[in-house]
Amino acid sequence: MNDTAVLLCGHGSRDPDAIGEFEVAAAALRRRLASPDFATGYLEFARPTIQQGLAGLAARGARRILAVPGMLFAASHVKNDLPWEMNSFMAGNSGIEVKLGRDLAIDPKLLAAAADRIASVAPDGREDSVLVVVGRGTNDPDANSNISKITRMLWEGMGFGWGETAYSGVAHPRVDAALDRAARLGFRRIVVFPYFLFTGVLVKRIYAQTDQAAARFPGIGFVKAPYLRDHPKVIDAFVERVVEVEGGDPNMNCQLCKYRTQVVGYEDEVGLTQQAHHHHVRGGDHRHDHHDRHHDHDDDHPHRHR
């Protein structure tokens, strides 16, 4: 009997559309895997929680669980919250090994998926267009810099006349400021691409802000590109992460991680104790209001990491 199972870890959302899309992608991943048991789990706002997902797999006989982050980049959730969840579960369940995989990161498959989404609304005339790539925005400069790199690679690779990076919160420039700047560059069209896996409050807000910018600048065409969702290459990347964690010990790129390296402006966060901020809200019924109003990032609180 195969005692290895897979857990796809999501952040969770109060938007049912976001949870629905996550589960659609999870179902597509499950169909691609050889593992006989599979589950999803969420850090907050939805059930099953990470702990419930792990416990369910263990109850069905899993003794080795491969946990894969359903997240684009390694910011606080991947660096702190998920390891805390895995370590906590193993501490209370001897004999069960949980191995945590890598984030999706900057990956050729993800870039190809992003290019497909953008090309679906901008098949030509890109030299006369500005591409605005919008990331979540976090308090981790390494994760934020990944969005800038994504922008540059899509801008040059797809032949856009210019590229701008924006963030839905925490980091700058914010969406409104970036769209206003792009509108003053003299191009006839602006293509807005949310670099997000799934919908939710933030993606819907980005699209609303695009509509508002279109009203402010009626002489420019504003185009809203679809986000990644369950693009086949996204599923390919998830499969790759499962295979990777099953075969070894995948490591995140820690070269510029503020918890391991002295990064300018974050010197006091090197080597801090790892502590998740979700442990006090497991189950999704809390009223952690800053998440409801502007869960634009990984969190507003300092994290600990070792």
Explain what you see.
By secondary structure, the protein is of the alpha/beta class. The chain has two domains: 164 residues, Rossmann fold (3-Layer(aba) Sandwich); 117 residues, Rossmann fold (3-Layer(aba) Sandwich). 40% of the residues lie in helices and 15% in strands. The chain has nine helices and eight strands. Helix 4 packs across helix 5 and helix 4 runs antiparallel to helix 8. The radius of gyration is 20 Å and the shape is elongated. It starts with a strand and ends in a 12-residue tail after the last helix.
Q: What is the string of SSEs from the N terminus onward?
A: EHEHEHEHEHEHEHEHH
Percent helix? 25-40%
Spatial ordering of strands, largest sheet: 2-1-3-4
Shape: elongated
Count of spatially separate domains: 2
Summarize model confidence as the mean pLDDT. Answer: 86
Distance between the termini: 36 Å
Low-pLDDT residue spans = 255-259, 283-306
Rg from Cα:
20 Å
Q: In the CATH classification, which architecture of the largest domain applies?
A: 3-Layer(aba) Sandwich
Question: Under CATH, the topology of the largest domain is which?
Answer: Rossmann fold
Please give the largest β-sheet.
4 strands, parallel
Share of residues in strands = 15-25%
| Structural class computed from helices and strand pairing | alpha/beta
CATH class of the largest domain: Alpha Beta
Find the count of extended strands (DSSP E, 2+ residues): 8
Number of helices, where a helix is a run of at least 4 consecutive DSSP H or I residues? 9
